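Last lecture ended with a question: if I hand you only a sequence, what can you say about the shape of the protein? Today we answer it with a concrete record. The protein is Non-specific serine/threonine protein kinase. Below, first the input exactly as provided, then the predicted structure, then a couple of comments.
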Amino acid sequence: MQQQGQAPLQIEHYIIGKTLGVGAFGKVKLAKHNITNTQVAIKIINKRKMKNSRMGAKIRREIRLLRYFNHPNVIKLYEVLDTPGDIFVVMEYAERGELFDLIAQRGKLPEGEARNFFLQILSGVEYCHNNLVAHRDLKPENILITHNYVVKIADFGLSNLMKDGKYLKTSCGSPNYAAPEVISGKTYCGSDADVWSCGVILYALLAGFLPFDEETTQALFKKIKSADYTIPSSFSPQVRDLINRMLTPDPLKRIKFHEIHLHPYMRSTQVPFYLQIPFKLDEGRRQINEDVFEKLMQLQTVNFRGMTQTQIQKSIRKREDKSFVVIYDLLLGQLGIESSTPMTLHNLTMHDLIFNPQIPQIEGQSFNNCLLNEIQKPQPYDYGKELPKDIMAIVYPFQARQIVNAIYTCLEKFNTVIKIKSPDYKLKCYHKNLIKMTKYNSSMELFNEFQKEVEETGSKNDLASLTFKDDGKKPKVKENKYSAKEIIFNIQIYKMPTNNNDHMIDFQLCRGHPVVFMDFCNKVIALLNQHFNQI
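The predicted structure:
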């Protein structure tokens, strides 16, 4: 405790105050920025303790993600200060503490108030998913509330990147909020697991207690896996339906985030604009708030390092590690303005989010077919860059088992070896081209071979529309670099978010030339189309 008359502890521009909490690696302190007078929370992490613990990776992961995240409902990281003994993580301060404390103090919340909190949680989590991050530890203890009741999702230490066609394996998070597939030790989709956790949180907001809460872990897991819970009679029919859809044990049948937006429970009230449209991390250029920027330029104590206003604005847009960028963010926070305004619709439109009685109801839930197109149109591609792994996908209106059997039949005709078969409809395949064994020295040489084949056969092939860069120089010979000899790829089948049997087949290249892979996928898809047309 600081003695009377003793100078307060200060680290750079931050005057350290009272302790907010104590963790395994150090303390969380309240602090004040001495230029803007903004209150912040500083997590002080002891380097020695972090080094001697496996949790170092958890801390580094959280810092790395929060550096780039920028959303009204995700906790803001302002900067990280490094000293010989400690790391000071400067973060946004949420005055009202954890959502857990609010539920503990007040018990169940009125449906309107609970929906307001849930909308904000949904917005923050969906922002993470849009930027390919699964939180994996969503619970009221990791959701903070500001003085004006704005939700801030925190603690990204267990989060992980989501990759198309790849599942997560680690069983993590709090058991009471974990999805059945997570506690079962199976591979799982991070976004589906987060939907389950959000369903548990919504239940807790409305009931004041958890749907799954047993004395022993064994009994708890049994109830979670069978979705054995009771919905209080006070819940409205709409919220009953939504919770049942979110707490569905089968992740393929569980409601998806974009479907939650269309549920009658979510559409029965007007919500803030920023909650209706998901943010995207890198969409457009960062917008500068002119009033805040003018206030920043008027501060006499800020070191702008001799930069012009244009250079300063550029640094702010690029999120450069400079003190005046932090001060700009702190000033925005004071005014309650978010520091990033660019947004993207990602399939959702304002028209879709406003309740429309003309849209037909399907089992009590509104769906708009325009939202069900999960496959984005291919963008113009610069061949000088690395090709994305996922470059082929197609949807069929058949059961997953029917599609798998058809894939087996088609791949057998191409002498393709299926190396791994998993119960979640994922195949790892190896294909060796026994006919064409030519080795190509450059991408241009390979493309010319395909172009020649197209011209000779007169067939229209999508490969001919690819754009290749050629600087006219003789390519460097690298044996087998672009060999058409073999490819290794994954096939994953996904359930589409519809009430029928639509499933998507996703082809993912693991090794081999992408053009050869695309050509092979076209042939497989043509054979699949022929097979299904006969049904």
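Comments.
1. Residues 233 and 240 are 9 Å apart (CA to CA).
2. The first helix runs from residue 47 to 51.
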